[in-house]
Task: inverse folding
């Protein structure tokens, strides 16, 4: 092992890049610039910032100015880390029925575990709901939803016929948790392999599911009969979050090149009246959230509002520091909480901040303590922001009046 | 110990004349490094291109950077980190041992290749950053988005696995 470096160097030098690597780079750059001109004000601003963009600036200048999307009166808050609760390997958190619900894996591998029901003020576990499957995302939360009188879990069940299963012997499934009985009362098989996320509207329970390596689809379940009533093919085989805004269902997707998942997220907009994809939004966002009836994209350049009617980005991005990848956006009555790298210290700690759509500014921040690793999911519950930490902890941040 | 760190490589080309020259000076080694980390030629090229694109877009500032080569590697590992975080367990399974696994093409007798394949992506990244590119734990932690102690743990776990794998092959 003493010559590990030499061995690594030899191996590294044995990989020859394609002869036309530079030409491919030029092609990719040109393609991206065309995309910028066609539609994304977000990237157009980046190009402008790089000094190339007189035309890009003109394009941006034609955009509608941001409009306030929240109440004009913002309640200033002073976030404070109130307590840290030790848990198992958690992956997602939601708020509903007066409780915080946390998906806790039995270990960090197989998907089984329990849904923890916790007191949102103290973190006390008031019920533990055994679950055959839990959301499987390592980062970014998702896969839990509250609505239609239930808590919903996106996951998978063992395939009844492994020979027909498209990947690892599982079928996508939804699980309905009765918040009165504190137990899983329905399991809804969805086909495919596993469910990525779940969303609830008045007329449907929606899940986006993976089908093998090549396909993904949005599945609609009737909220009364709990039967699958529609299957909507999606453009990409890699799906992530589901959102509901403006009377539509929106699916976050990423492009797939071979076994590589691209970083340029898009949204597909589905009309529940027809169960059809009616628009696609290319936004290059790390995460999307809903606030004030609009969709907000968190991009490398900040927050951008997406008009739910025109599907267009509106206005310039509002700077949001250096967004840290991973954690969900969490909305309170005045804004969207998000995570960044600590702007003042190079200590690797994360800072959680609130973005105000009404002003386009960040008005409150708190840095997580050193005993945490990195936040992976968040939910607002009353006067608290609950943060799932990567390393088996829950952090309650008290949102006290400033 | 041969000092072939990325920092040394970067400084050797400080203030490059043009982006093309910068690309020519760095792309082959960056590509090889990313092949080690990702075990996938397509992904390695994708990350490499995205990293170069990011620098190209701000080339006026990057060319004045004291260590543009180091900046390039940091950018590439940041991209790698972001991709890791997006990946589901199932997708990760697909990424490991993929049909384009370049380590499998190097030399089947090369026990180090087998050892690297046995590591997790983050363990591979930690070893490459510390043992090939001479990053400190703090620098590697910054690149991978984890605390320095985590880098040390990842590298320690990875080296132990490498020792086991190479030891078995040598028996």
Result:
């Amino acid at each position: 092992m003493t010559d590990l470096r030499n061995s690594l160097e030899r191996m590294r030098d044995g990989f020859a890049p394609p002869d036309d690597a530079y030409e491919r780079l030029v092609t990719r750059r040109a393609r991206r610039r065309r995309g910028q001109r066609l539609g994304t004000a977000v990237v157009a601003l980046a190009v402008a910032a790089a000094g190339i963009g007189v035309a890009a600036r003109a394009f941006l200048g034609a955009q509608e100015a941001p409009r306030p999307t929240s109440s004009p009166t913002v309640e200033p808050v002073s976030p404070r880390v109130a307590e840290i609760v030790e848990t198992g390997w958690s992956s997602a958190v939601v708020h509903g029925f007066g409780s915080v619900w946390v998906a806790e894996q039995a270990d960090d591998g197989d998907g089984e575990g329990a849904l923890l029901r916790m007191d949102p003020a103290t973190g006390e576990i008031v019920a533990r709901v055994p679950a055959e499957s839990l959301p499987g995302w390592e980062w970014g939360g998702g896969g839990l939803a509250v609505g239609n009188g239930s808590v919903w879990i996106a996951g998978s069940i063992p395939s009844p016929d492994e020979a027909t299963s498209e990947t690892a012997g599982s079928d996508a499934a939804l699980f309905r948790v009765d918040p009165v009985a504190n137990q899983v009362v329905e399991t809804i098989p969805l086909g495919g392999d596993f469910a990525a996320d779940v969303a609830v509207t008045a007329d449907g329970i929606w899940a986006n599911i993976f089908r093998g390596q090549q396909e993904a689809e949005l599945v609609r379940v009737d909220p009364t009969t709990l039967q699958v009533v529609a299957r909507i093919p999606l453009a990409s085989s890699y799906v992530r979050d589901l959102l509901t805004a403006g009377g539509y269902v929106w699916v976050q997707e990423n492009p797939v090149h071979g076994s590589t998942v691209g970083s340029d997220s898009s949204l597909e907009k589905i009309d529940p009246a027809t169960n059809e994809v009616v628009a696609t939004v290319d936004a290059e966002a790390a995460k999307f959230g809903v606030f004030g009836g609009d969709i907000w994209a968190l991009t490398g350049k900040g927050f951008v509002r997406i008009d739910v009617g025109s599907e267009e980005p509106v206005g310039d991005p509002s700077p949001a520091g250096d967004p840290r990848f991973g954690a969900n956006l969490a909305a309170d009555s005045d804004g969207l909480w998000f995570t960044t790298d600590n702007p003042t210290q190079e200590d690797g700690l994360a800072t959680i901040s609130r973005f105000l759509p009404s002003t386009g500014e960040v008005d409150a921040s708190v840095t997580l303590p050193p005993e945490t690793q990195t936040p992976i999911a968040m939910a607002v519950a009353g006067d608290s922001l609950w943060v799932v930490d990567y390393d088996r902890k829950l952090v309650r941040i008290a949102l006290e009046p400033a | 110990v041969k000092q072939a760190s990325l920092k040394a490589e970067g400084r050797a080309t400080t203030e490059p004349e043009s982006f093309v020259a910068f690309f020519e000076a760095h792309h082959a080694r960056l590509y090889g490094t990313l092949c080690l980390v990702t075990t996938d030629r397509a992904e390695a090229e994708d990350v490499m291109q995205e990293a170069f694109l990011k620098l190209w877009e701000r080339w006026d500032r990057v060319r004045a950077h004291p260590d543009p080569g180091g900046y390039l590697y940091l950018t590439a590992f940041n991209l790698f980190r972001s991709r890791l975080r997006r990946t589901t367990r199932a997708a990760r399974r697909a990424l490991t041992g993929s049909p384009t696994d370049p380590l499998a093409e190097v030399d089947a007798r090369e026990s180090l290749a087998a050892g690297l394949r046995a590591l997790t992506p983050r363990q591979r990244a930690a070893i490459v950053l510390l043992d090939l590119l001479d990053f400190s734990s703090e620098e590697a932690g910054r690149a991978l988005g984890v605390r320095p102690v985590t880098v040390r743990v990842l590298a320690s776990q990875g080296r132990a696995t490498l020792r086991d794998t190479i030891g078995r092959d040598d028996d």
In short: The CA atoms of residues 10 and 69 of chain B lie 4 Å apart. Chain B has a mean pLDDT of 72. Residues 148-170 of chain B form the longest helix (23 residues). Chain B has eleven helices and no strands.
